[in-house]
Amino acid sequence: MKIPANDFERQWADTSADVMAAVAEVGASGWYILGQQVRGFEEALAAYWKLPHAAGVANGMDAIEIGLRALGCGTGDLVLTSPISAFATVLAILKLGAMPVFADCAPNGLIDLDECREILTKRPGIGYFVPVHLYGHCLDMEALSNLRRDFGLRIVEDCAQSIGTGCGHAGQVAATSFYPTKNLGALGDGGALLCRDADLAASVRQLRDYGQSHKYVHAVAGYNSRLDELQAAILRKAFLPRLARWTSRRQAIAARYREAIQNPWIEIPAAPADSVWHLFPVLVDAKAEALAYFRDAGVGVAEHYPQALIEQPALGDGFHRSGCERAKQFCRRQMSLPIHPYLDDNEVERVIDIANRWRA
Ligand SMILES: Cc1ncc(COP(=O)(O)O)c(C=O)c1O
User: Fold this and answer.
1) Structure pTM?
2) Which atom of ligand 1 is nearest to the CA of 61?
3) Using CA atoms, how far apart are residues 352 and 261, in angstroms rounded to an integer?
């Protein structure tokens, strides 16, 4: 039996009754866009996140773009960001006509906040920052708040992989994704922004709905980026109530991997104690061999990510590609082991056994 990276069959078996009840409720309501389900989910999410305002949008990438735009970011602005992430993080910056500036990573792959301080000191004019809480690991929030204060930064925290850690409280905006594989994933696309400031929340709500200030009055040229009523209802009624249990299961699996995987060829990077373990990254020198070995043994390993963002061709020829050498090297060695909440104990032990037998 294969051990997949995600197991949506088991998730469906566990959640389908609640999902179908949510779908039936939306269907019967006759209201499918920006109605009481989105409002109800936004309230529940804001309470969960301990921030006063939440606004649902179409996906996590839009959440970053709309968050930056609501903070004033536009053409030509410099945005400091993480060297390793989903491409969506940097695409959100590029779509605004802004310019990403990458800091290198720390040994665990997350952005190095000391290097951020050096860059911000040496290169005045960087007004925006999109730090990524990668893998389920929350960055040092005190260090992040200090950077915000010392350099007057406008920060959109990319929390897509770290819901439930306490991330999202250092910047002006927290952006998250409900892509199906996320710790809180929908049955399709979805995202949200969270913030403390009521005016900022109002401007985000305006931007997501064509920039409307009132019906058919378009104060700004906005987006069509709304969270569906269906996804909001499913998230609120079927998935958010399970998130705490899912997170504990991820944490228990990570603890077991960290204790029992003992192979000199597999390095397990450092992680904060409160990680929500969206992914379980390991580092290997012979990555192609490792991927083939685990896949042949039926283990759904993946790469997050095969390249540092700075290496992506879409950044264009004019982009300065030197630097971020640690991130490039990290990506060459990084591989993720399965860590979804429906893995059973036997599967966890099998992954450990297979890991320990590699090159033994
Ligand atoms: C760190 C990070 N940022 C942003 C995104 C973008 O989210 P979405 O796929 O919902 O646009 C993702 C997920 O894909 C992600 O992992």
Assistant:
1) 0.98
2) 11
3) 6
Mutation to probe ligand 1, out of 61, 68, 95, 336 (largest number of atoms < 8 A from CB): 61
CATH match for 8-241 among 1.20.1070.10, 3.40.1280.10, 2.60.120.200, 3.40.640.10: 3.40.640.10
Pinpoint the alpha helices (H) of 185-228.
198-208
In the chain, what are the domain boundaries? Answer: 8-241, 243-357
Residue reference for tokens 């929500």: 276
Q: What distance in angstroms lies between residue 88's CA and the mean position of ligand 1's atoms?
A: 6
The CA distance from 241 to 17, in Å, is 14
Map residue 91 onto helix, strand or coil. helix
Ligand 1 centroid to Cα of residue 99, in Å, is 19
User: For ligand 1, is residue 185 a contact (CB within 6 Å)?
Assistant: no
pLDDT digits (tens, 9 = 90+) for 59-118: 999 999 999 999 999 999 999 999 999 999 999 999 999 999 999 999 999 999 999 999
Fold held by 243-357: Aspartate Aminotransferase, domain 1 (3.90.1150)
